[in-house]
Amino acid sequence: MTAPWHVSVITLHPDRFPGILAASLVGKALESGLWRLETYDLRAFGRGRHNSVDDTPAGGGPGMVLRADVLADAVDAATLPDDPRPRLCLSARGRPLTQARVHKLAEGPGVLLVCGRFEGIDQRVIDTRGLDEVSIGDFVLAGGEVAAMALMEACVRLLPGVMGADASGDEESFEAGLLEYPHYTRPQDFEGQTIPDVLTSGDHAAVARWRRDEAEKLTRERRPDLWAAQEELRDSKGDK
Ligand code: SAM
């Protein structure tokens, strides 16, 4: 049996894990040992009588910053000897997480994740511990925990044996550089809205064509950036 995909999370809120990740396919995969999760309580590495983990920002300004020495101790404790896992820090200013990156992470041995809080973390721990900053979107959360869970969930569902055979992810959003087509199921008539005829025609080629057209339309409308990349790809392949 191959080693489980191994996640170590450094957080001020270890009691909030696995949270939603204990549910459904991802939770079953955790139970059955396809992946493994351990948390490191940042408070346990705190300094002084109150186990302080943060301090005021050098140069002034609002909020608090997670201390480099505290976080470095936690990262070192969570790092295995010759640890091959990437060390990521959830960060609004990080490189955006993409489905391509999720695939790469899921193909590897696991990840070490650092959840920031307050104004963020001291730059020196990012530099000395080689943390790669990753963002889950252009918005600011209160902490890295929700982002860490999003990253874990996206990766774990791609691990071999997690998704059922009939739930292949091949046609999902981003897999082919497009957003996914719309879905319908029973009832046939919902408040006067019926299922498009083609989907109940039994003509598989027509269904595939319709889905492709809808996926392209949605991508053009909602994600001109993805659509432009698709067009570039098509141009480079010369199939225009
Ligand atoms: N001062 C930071 C900035 O302007 O980029 C925001 C800090 S935020 C209040 C606290 C923590 O939430 C961050 O250290 C990070 O771990 C997490 N966080 C916030 N937004 C995020 C995002 N879009 N993606 C990943 N993590 C995020």
Protein described:
The mean pLDDT is 95. The chain is elongated, with a radius of gyration of 22 Å. The protein is of the alpha/beta class and 240 residues long. α6 packs across α7. It contains seven helices and nine strands, in the order βαβββαβαβαβαββαα. A five-stranded parallel β-sheet has the order 2-1-6-5-7, sandwiched between helices. Bound molecules: S-adenosylmethionine. The site of S-adenosylmethionine has 19 residues, from β5.
Quickly describe the structure.
With 240 residues, this protein is α/β, with parallel strands linked by helices.
Structural class: alpha/beta
Low-confidence blocks of residues: none
CATH class of the largest domain: Alpha Beta
- Multimer state: single chain
> Any idea what the CATH superfamily of the largest domain is called?
SPOUT methyltransferase, trefoil knot domain
Alpha plus pi helix count: 7
* Mean pLDDT over the residues: 95
SSE order, one letter for each helix or strand:
EHEEEHEHEHEHEEHH
Distance between the termini: 46 Å
**Beta content:** 15-25%
The profile of the biggest β sheet is: 5 strands, parallel
Instruction: For the largest sheet, list the strands in their spatial order.
Output: 2-1-6-5-7
Q: How would the global form be characterised?
A: elongated
Looking at the overall shape, the CATH architecture of the largest domain is 3-Layer(aba) Sandwich
Number of strands: 9
Task: Based on the model shown, name its key terms.
binds S-adenosylmethionine, alpha/beta, five-stranded parallel sheet, 2 domains, 240 residues, 9 strands, 33% helix, elongated, two-stranded antiparallel ribbon, single chain, Alpha/beta knot
